[in-house]
Amino acid sequence: MTPTTGVGAAVRVIVRYTFVCLLLGFFALPLLWLAFAPFDREPATAAALPQFTLDNFRELLDNDNALRSLRNSVLLAAGTGGIVVALAAFAAYALSRVRLPGRDGLLYALLLLSSIVTGTAAMVPLFNLAYELKLIDSQLGVILVLSGGLLPSAIFILKDFTDTTPRSYEESARVFGASPFQIVRHLVIPLIRPGLATVGVWSVAQVWGNFLIPFLLLRSPEKSPAAVVMYTFYTEGGQPDLALISTFSLLYSLPVVVMFLFVSSRYGFRFHGGIKH
């Protein structure tokens, strides 16, 4: 290797690592602001060392709308996650075990349509449907709409897990008189538990940050989730209340992060099921 070649390689390495550091810094700055601003006496849009105080948290705890919206978010996320996981598990098992003409084509069509016709594009017919069913300003209506949008992808994910579960176990259970429901409950579900955990976390995360559907379907402020209420934090002068927004954002992000870390440490996130060998 000539000296010129060595210098060129060193320059390329320096440029590459400099670019990576700048990129990491670009994405890390918002996280640093979110970590420091709630503890700052006078938070601003720039990231800086805070003038430490806990007054922002006291102000947030005194805000009834903020705490109520977090409870509403938990209700919507838990309801939607439970429906999606339960229905997707049974549907994925049926699609995996029952041979139907055009089964795979139907599954891919549902996945494709759910990706193209998103909640935003289908909001007008969904709103009309909710109006006809008298589900406007109903948290149940929001849960049903969100569940319908997430089910195709959840079924697609869980079917891969179900396909890898041994059918010989099910045949043995049938010999001993197990019903189809008992087979699913006591045999299939424990084997696809990592998939259920993955779909559960994904569903909750999708609902937790959803703004448009609750904003359009819910009329009462006391029923609004945190993603909607966050947009109402303004000062009397019409400026964003950065102290309240940053503190609320920190508390708002913690449940999903904690759930992700718990599920990841216990089950891991992998896109296959079956038995470990």
UniProtKB/TrEMBL annotation:
CDD domains with a match to the protein in the record: TM_PBP2
Entry membrane topology: Multi-pass membrane protein
Organism expressing this protein natively: Streptomyces litchfieldiae
UniProt keyword terms in alphabetical order: Cell membrane, Membrane, Sugar transport, Transmembrane, Transmembrane helix, Transport
Coiled coil (residue ranges): none
Main subcellular localisation: membrane
UniProt subcellular location: Cell membrane
Entry protein name: Carbohydrate ABC transporter permease
Stretches assigned to the ABC transmembrane type-1 domain: 70-263
Transmembrane segments: 14-36, 74-95, 107-127, 139-158, 195-217, 242-263
PANTHER family: MALTOSE TRANSPORT SYSTEM PERMEASE-RELATED, MALTOSE_MALTODEXTRIN TRANSPORT SYSTEM PERMEASE PROTEIN MALG
Homology family: Belongs to the binding-protein-dependent transport system permease family. MalFG subfamily.
Classification via Gene3D superfamilies: MetI-like
